[in-house]
Specification:
This protein is of the alpha/beta class. Helix content is 42%, strand content 18%. Helix 6 packs across helix 7, helix 7 runs parallel beside helix 8 and helix 11 runs antiparallel to helix 14. Bound molecules: zinc ion.
Length: 379
């Protein structure tokens, strides 16, 4: 079971620090979770995650259900044993992947029918199945199956998705209660409502009324403008129970991360830091840096002078560029290590700033330096 204790609150906003006690150890919040889609955080070994002090990673139910399949993971004794990870795992419900990856999906009141993006095979999953699958994985934090919708849909479609999400949340909660004796994890509900304020409020209130031990905010950071993201996040978070952990899905860049924490978000995840590492981009305090650029050819200093990660302590920008140019497998490994270290350190500094009551000034100072910088990683 999960228990959550708010430790400090920042006087200027909803930012707080806390301790999330989970079956595989306590996690300090706010906390960034690296994404381990297939039961591995891409291009980094578990020992390195442990060295960094990562206590919680995310794994994707959709991917693991399709491959290697639940029966393999069950036979291994659960996902922790299968992947040899002794700390916590949060699994998503697969809802987002069904909508973003499956070549076909059909929502019915009973559940969702979809075709696998791997082999095209048809599957049908109910919200109860999704709880069962996550319990078979041995997840520490489970998510309810929800209906994700893209920005720009009409109100009627958004209402349909909200109704289904709330109904599935009720059914998921009931299933979790039946399995209480055999399951060690905790089930979080997910707020939807698309980009309509009143629907966001309605969804937040309906999900909050089900008394989940934690709540996720879904359907944001899905292609809308930053201003719209911030407005909806601020509005939605006002209707969430203040004593429950909040998880904002799909957030992993400094500007979004600060906005999340400012609104009382405790957990976030994103593939961004590991994905850009594989594409040759790295976080620095002065913005993203592209490691493939000609400008890096003779830069014999570390990626970031102040960074204490193993990549920066040992290797130069010029060497990293050479590795990318030569398509060496070490290149994404070293950049991934740095990018996760960067976000983990940022979360630690954010916690410290809240503890010392100076979150707002830390945010201002960090983001002004970040946005003034090199910012060439997207090219
Ligand atoms: Zn570094």
């Amino acid at each position: 079971m999960v228990t959550f204790t708010v430790v400090e609150r920042d006087p200027s906003c909803r930012a707080r620090t806390g301790i999330l006690d989970l079956p595989h150890g306590a996690v300090r919040t706010p906390q960034f979770m690296p994404v381990g889609t297939n039961g591995t955080v891409k291009a980094i070994a578990h020992a390195d995650l442990e060295d960094m002090g990562i206590g919680l990673i995310l794994a994707n139910t959709y991917h693991l259900y399709l491959r290697p399949g639940v029966e393999v993971i069950r036979a291994a004794g659960g996902l922790h044993r299968f992947m040899s990870w002794t700390r916590n795992v949060l699994t998503d419900s697969g809802g987002y992947q069904v909508f973003s990856l499956a070549p076909f999906r059909k929502i019915e009141p009973e559940g969702v029918e979809f075709r696998s993006h791997i082999d095209g095979a048809r599957h049908f999953l109910t919200p109860e199945d999704v709880v069962d699958i996550q319990n078979a994985l041995g997840s520490d934090v489970l998510m309810t199956l929800d209906v994700c919708t893209p920005p720009g849909i009409d109100r009627d479609r958004a209402i349909d998705a909200l109704r289904t999400t709330s109904e599935w949340a009720r059914r998921s909660k009931a299933r979790m209660s039946e399995e209480r004796s055999s399951a060690s994890g905790s089930l979080f509900g997910i707020v939807q409502g698309n980009f309509f304020k009143d629907l966001r409020r309605r969804s937040a209130e309906e999900i909050a009324s089900l008394d989940f031990p934690g709540i996720a905010i879904g359907g944001l950071s899905v292609g809308e403008s930053f201003a719209q993201f911030e407005e909806l996040l601020e509005y939605t978070s006002g209707f969430l129970p203040p004593d429950r952990p909040r998880y904002l899905m799909g957030v992993g860049t400094p500007d979004y991360l600060f906005a999340a924490v400012e609104n009382g978000v405790d957990l976030f995840d994103c593939v961004f830091p590991t994905r850009i590492a594989r594409n040759g981009a790295a976080f620095t305090r002065r913005g993203l840096v592209s490691l493939k650029k000609e400008a890096r050819r003779l830069e014999f200093e570390p990626l970031e002078r102040s960074c204490r990660c193993p990549t920066c302590l040992r290797y130069s920008r010029a060497y990293l560029r050479h590795l990318y140019k030569a398509k060496e497998i070490l290149a994404p490994m070293l950049a991934t290590r740095h990018n996760l270290h960067f976000l983990n350190e940022l979360a630690r500094e954010i916690r410290l700033s809240i503890q010392e009551g100076r979150f707002a000034s830390f945010k201002r100072q960090f983001l002004s330096e970040y946005s003034a910088g090199e910012e060439d990683g997207n090219e």
